[in-house]
Here is the input.
Amino acid sequence: MFAVKGTFFDTPSPDALRMREGYLVVDNGRIRCFCETLPLELRCIEVLDYTGKMIVPGMSDLHLHASQYRYTGTAMDVALIDWLSNYAYPEEARYADPDYAARLYGAFTQDLLHTSTTRSCIFATIHTDATLILQDLLEQSGMVAYVGKLNIDRNSPDYYREASPEAGMAETIRWILTSRSRGYQYALPMITPRFTPSVTDEYMRRLGEAAAEYGLPMQSHISENTDEIAWVKALCPDTSYYYETYSRYGLFGGTTPTVMAHCIYSSPEECRVMKEQNVFIAHCPTSNENVIAGIAPAAMYLREGYHVGLGSDIAGGHTLNLFAVMAAAVQMSKLRWKFLSSDYAPLSIIEAFYMATVGGGRFFGKVGLFEPGYEFDAAVLNEPVNHSVIDLRPEERLEIYAYRGDGKAEAKFVSGRKIL
Amino acid sequence: MFAVKGTFFDTPSPDALRMREGYLVVDNGRIRCFCETLPLELRCIEVLDYTGKMIVPGMSDLHLHASQYRYTGTAMDVALIDWLSNYAYPEEARYADPDYAARLYGAFTQDLLHTSTTRSCIFATIHTDATLILQDLLEQSGMVAYVGKLNIDRNSPDYYREASPEAGMAETIRWILTSRSRGYQYALPMITPRFTPSVTDEYMRRLGEAAAEYGLPMQSHISENTDEIAWVKALCPDTSYYYETYSRYGLFGGTTPTVMAHCIYSSPEECRVMKEQNVFIAHCPTSNENVIAGIAPAAMYLREGYHVGLGSDIAGGHTLNLFAVMAAAVQMSKLRWKFLSSDYAPLSIIEAFYMATVGGGRFFGKVGLFEPGYEFDAAVLNEPVNHSVIDLRPEERLEIYAYRGDGKAEAKFVSGRKIL
Here is the structure.
């Protein structure tokens, strides 16, 4: 048992920011209580003193491509087709080399460690060994992550495609079993068909069986742009909606916890099933502003009770800093409201903070709030302004950090473990 | 005479990034030559060694409100009318207090000093004494700036408006003469009517006379949103175009060097006159994404030969970091292209860099390039990635800095003077 002292920010509901100064008592990885002063019976426990510092719940990054880390923040002014053929595919193919994987995933893991993110859902590449290297690195870091070896057996260059569903499944099973035998506690496997255009029906069917057999969650992309939706319809003529290409194989929520990235153009029927099946939506606003496929209706998702969190979506997104992603969520929702659809008022920064903490955290259990019983995930931050010169209200402290903070945690906790 | 050693990035033309490793020789504030190795006759001069560091031309910020610095990065989710009445006006009114001005302008100047910006065009407030305090602080910093005491005699709250054109002119003349008597070399006065809705015709007329009499440049806002344009038309029924409310008093380029912020909805006729009169356009993309009045046709302005630079426009913009503004310029041009008008392909990061350096620098003379004869304005930067792990091409180094760099200069030069 120990206590952390500081200024705690969290969101008990999507429209309510709470700021409390005092002590959070942590017992066996979970929050026991908050108190303004430590009661007598707790005076002997260790206190980690961050007086005056902003402390936020550890954030959950629901969608990112670790294998695109090298060029994150570049290639932002090339068209999508060039981006895929000149950047994404050649770069991901380099992870066939374990040395390259160790070097780049090492840099990625270190950089992620220094953000406010404590949990994430990660796309790796088709390479089993490189994916296991990433899991080793994440496991050592102490962060919690679901990691996906990708499945791709169509519609990518020959040099970056699995030969057949059989060959792909053999590697996928080897990867799952090796993950088990290594006894990972934090870096767990997640079934990851890249997206329907990359995966034949037969391969998708087998992935659904594997998810059920091994009790694994799944992640993929859906309805990011209109051309993609038409393409999926042509590839799978026996489906009426994009989501069916996943759901018919048990890969769309329900008993298989699912994260779907983007959901920009999901039809009402797709939305209905997402909600009913508790599919988590990874809203990726920095990707929206860079890839310009569209702007997801994130305010609608949040206010209508969908499960929605944020994703950095590197390298479509340009930063791992989820505070910057929060700011982009507000900006993109304003642009959507102004230019595309005025159905829902723009997101507030408090709602964006809720998505980054509670919204995504829920995928990992009781994560994202400073409430008794929740896992103690937290990041201690250095604010970008001097409070002796500049007076700010609590919501202004949060907002200014989102827009101007460096996103670098001074200290970080996951399930009560201090990992930074 | 001295030399600076490092890796120099600049843009001899809007579509060409140049990266050179070697020495830049500086003589009497101006660049004498670039050389890969120092020739024999220069071996004895002092060398400031930044080997391996990225060095960029000092950037020019053509539009910012220093008096809104306190809340920069906040109030991003309130509507414009609330933003003005609850943030901008009350905050600017606080600068009636010289102690407040000294404290806040001090923080602003320090923060600006640590960016890559060496020159700027700044809006202060209506208060003469506070504006002079800002000029004192800027002058001491060594940065070059045009600073404007604002002129406002209508359409703002009673507590933040000048009583009459006569009263406003008396203060304006006192401010100009005091600026002269203090002998500022770097922090120079610039006539600054807030914008037409804030300034009566009579006051505007007198400001035009003052600009001519004292040989001062001017800055203001124009055509930021459609409601504003309609309002100006109603306020000045004897004009056909917004620009005429400035030009008829000699405040729109020509012999009065002029910067106009925004130019989002400038009509073809307004554009024609801007170009003909060499009016500089301050493109403010972060403001575009926050205030969502619209997205300026910056790619058109640049490619059609207008004078166009970047403005941080704090606090409509959320950061003084012009690299972040460059990234936003690319993002906003992509969103404009996708959703509003496909007339001009989106800006490249190189074009955005050109606007931040050469485009805005031209307002200050030969500034913004590492060419012989140009003033030596430069910022030395720490890149966000480790080049021993991550291999990048020159344009990727620039782009990754724009999207992921912290924008903090390690060293900075203005006209050959090392000020940081």
Remarks:
- The CA atoms of residues 365 and 374 of chain A lie 8 Å apart.
